[in-house]
Amino acid sequence: MRLATLGFAISLWLVSLCGVASAGPDRATLEAEVRALPRATAIYLTGEGVATPFGVATGSIGLDGTMTVDTPLRIASNTKTFTAAALLRLWETGRLDLDAPIGPLLTPALDALLRADGYDTQTITVRQVMSHSAGFYDHGSDSRFVRSIMETPAHQFTREELVSLSMAWADPQSAPGTRFQYSDTGYILLGDIVERLAEKPLGPAVRELLKLDDLGLASTWWEVMEPQPGTAPDRAPQALGDFDATGVHASADLYGGGGLVMSARDLAIFFAALFERRVFDRPETLAEMLRRGPHQRADHYRLGVFVISTADGRDIYWHSGFWGTIVAYDPQAKMAVSGMTTNQDNFLATARVVQHILATPPLVP
């Protein structure tokens, strides 16, 4: 089905959202449209504004399986929201000053790498790294990095090795706190800070800080750092076009900028919980997460989450992941919507379904 037709069909049931948010979209229409997508895809809706949470999934994930809303996938950069939220929990409990310099908080070897490349770690703050305004180069979007994981997918990266790539490929991009520049490298550093302050590996630390076990996330775990839960199906294959990325070692995207494996159901449940007072202990913590910074282009990214304003004045909070995952929350409708696909080629079509459900402009980083 052409995407123009998809948008028209979904718009028919968007009318049901006006005035009666709890009604949600028409399930039968959504199911028909998702099943028309060319690759394995799952969409899930939940939140206080959804009377009965539900999802739709379609497509093959191998010889013996089909996609479901409980199929786990690597969520890549969607993990950044979890890393940021863990830091905010550390702030909430008095263990972290968001405006403290990162130098004393980092593993000394990482601090030395940064300083050797000209980064002033006594000036750069935790908040600036969380908001992508610290001036770090993004090794993850460098074509050399993508090429390296395609050529040697089994290579096991260390945290220091990934940071070293960023330092080798580029110098500081801007003065700290002056402008937005997305950076996986920065979130790798934040993951190190979480581990050091929580005094445990990143996966268990985030699980405890964000109370993930209390949320009933049955298909969620941090690769390498945690065992696969007995309630979770095996992780599904994922691809980048014709390249089967399933065998890429988790360490290529593990240390805070990515690392989590989740299902569409679990990702939507977490986003709803984050915005509906079930993760943070105090409302001030969520307000701190969503407070706009003073730097250039701070209008579309807060602390670990993108934001986009709709034509009718709503702010929608969202994030996406490299391999083809996306989640968004509408505070007015009190609705979280996640979308996952097994092939990055299908990501834009999947994102458009999420956009149409929440009636947003294009969700583009």
Notable traits:
single chain; alpha+beta; disordered N terminus; 12 helices; three-stranded antiparallel sheet; Beta-lactamase; six-stranded antiparallel sheet; 365 residues
Task: List strands and helices in order, with pairings.
Layout: H1 3-14, H2 27-35, E1 41-46, E2 54-58, E3 73-74, H3 79-92, H4 108-116, H5 126-130, H6 143-151, H7 159-169, H8 184-198, H9 202-209, E4 221-222, E5 239-240, E6 243-244, E7 260-262, H10 264-275, H11 283-290, E8 306-309, E9 315-321, E10 325-330, E11 335-341, H12 347-358
Antiparallel strand pairs: 1-2, 1-11, 3-7, 4-7, 5-6, 8-9, 9-10, 10-11
Helix pairs in contact: 1-12, 3-8, 3-11, 4-7, 7-8
Structure in words:
Helix 1 packs parallel to helix 12 and helix 3 packs across helix 11. It is built from twelve helices and eleven strands. The two termini are 26 Å apart. Strand 5 and strand 6 form a beta hairpin. It has 365 residues and is an alpha+beta fold. The strands form three sheets. Strands 2-1-11-10-9-8 form a six-stranded antiparallel β-sheet, sandwiched between helices. It has a domain of 248 residues: Beta-lactamase.
